[in-house]
Structures are given as C-alpha cells and as structure tokens.
Amino acid sequence: MSTLPALPYNEWVETKDTLHLFLQIIGKIRLRAHPKLNHWWHVTLFPHVRGLTTGRIPYAGGGFEILYDMLDHKVTVSSDAGRQGSFSVPGLTVAGFHDALFSRLEDLGISVNIIGVPYDNKSTVPFAEDTAPRAYDESAVSDFWRALCVIANVFEKYRSGFVGKQTPVQLYWHSFDLVVTRFSGRSYPLNKGRQSDKEAYSHEVISIGFWPGDDTFPEAAFYGYAYPEPDDLNLEPLSPKQAFWAEKNGGALAILKYEDARTTEDADEAILAFLNSLYEGAACKAVWPAEELAHAYA
Question: Where do the DSSP E strands lie in the chain?
Fold first, then answer.
C-alpha cells in the first residue's frame, strides 16, 4: 500500500504556479522539437524516478532530453553525444529559468525557437520578461513529485486492463494534469473550438487524470469524463463513496478529491476503484465494445 503526501493547495499554490510556468517552458521546447504525434502526444512530459522528463527528443541526427530533477531541484539537459549541462532551480525567476535552460541548450549545440509566452495560464508575461521574484518551496515540489510517482503507478495498473488504443501516462504542461485517455476506435470529430481541440478530440474517448487544483477548484483531485458525453452519464454510480459528479464547461465531470483518496485505508485501491467505475459507467452509456477492449490477462 502506497503513502500519498499531503498537498494542501493554499500552502503551496504560489510554488505550484512557479513550477507550472517552468514546466511550460520545457514543454514548449518538446512541442517545437519533437515530430508531431496524434492527439498532441508529442508535447507531453513523463514521470521519472527523480522528477519529470521530456524523454528523448530527436534532433539533427541525434537526440536530447531535459530532466527536471525534483529531488535535487535542478534541470539537466543531456544529449546522446554524451554531453550534458545543468543548473539549479531554487531562487530563479521565470526569466532566469528560461535563460538558464536556453543557455544549456546552446552549449550543447541545440537551437529551438518557442513561442515564449504562457499558454492558457493566469500569467501572460513573456517568459524572458518575467523577472518578478517567485516562490519555490523545495519540499512542496518534492511532495508533488512523490504524489505523481504513486499516482502514475496506479494509472499504469489501470492501463493494463485495456487492449485498445490509449495514451501513455503523461503530463500535459498547459493544463498541468497527469492523464490517461482510452479510445473506442470510433471516429467522432469535434467541429468547433480551436484546432488543437479538434485534433485532440477526433475520436471517442474516456479520459481520466489528476491535477493539483487551480483558483476555481482549490484542491488536488482525480477526475474523469467521456467525449462525446452520453446521455445521463452523471447518473452512473461512482466508487469509492467519496466520489461525486460535478459540472464542468456544461458537461459531467467525475471527481474524487485527492485528500479523500489519500486518507482512505488503501489510497491505491480507492483511486483505482474510481478510475474503473468511471470507465465502466461511461463505456456502458456510450456503448463501447468493452468486452473486446478488455485485456484478458489483466
């Protein structure tokens, strides 16, 4: 049984906002440098045994990786030519982080041009111009990473029960959530919204995730939803008993608060029960071929 650390939103929100902007800079480098993949899978970051990583990014006949170490609180850029450079994170402004990262890339002969402004963020200041002092609580960042490690393990177990197309366990840096999305295999193109939304929602999906909270919902939580949303989805029962349905952007969103899961007798099982109850209810309502998509040996 895993132990989840407490993540009190009000105690680390300023650090969370700092971390979010730092990760957006790293994510935008991956977005620009990595070959484009379906549903924007080329932009995401991945849990690592020491923090979050871009994974290997192909570049000019070789490749590089950016690792944000959330234990030693440093960022390391490594190339498959055997070279690397790193810098310490605590005390940096957003501009300082931006400049340090691009300096290390330049030292390794890596040139990547990004759109240097936050995306869908309450900050609109260009990264290179954001020189305001920023909070950075090292313990809070490490606790967030420890939570991601536990949650990623549960998400991997959830993934093991499905043989259809699904995402890896990945963190979308724009919305700052760790996600796994399953696909029915049926096309259902979104005909409104931004082009990025249309590419993300070209097929039927049931998606689950974890996010650390924001100003509209100031606490960490697990969530799940279906696209397109079947009728009466919010009438489907959820597990454990603390889970509930909420409304988000006019649709039904299943919620299990992180603290409710963390304080149960077995947090891993509570989270997994939530994920499975959401998927099973949504798949039934949306008439997915659930038996064909189930992994026989899970």
Answer: 46-48, 51-53, 57-59, 62-69, 74-79, 84-88, 170-172, 177-187, 203-211, 221-227, 244-248, 251-257
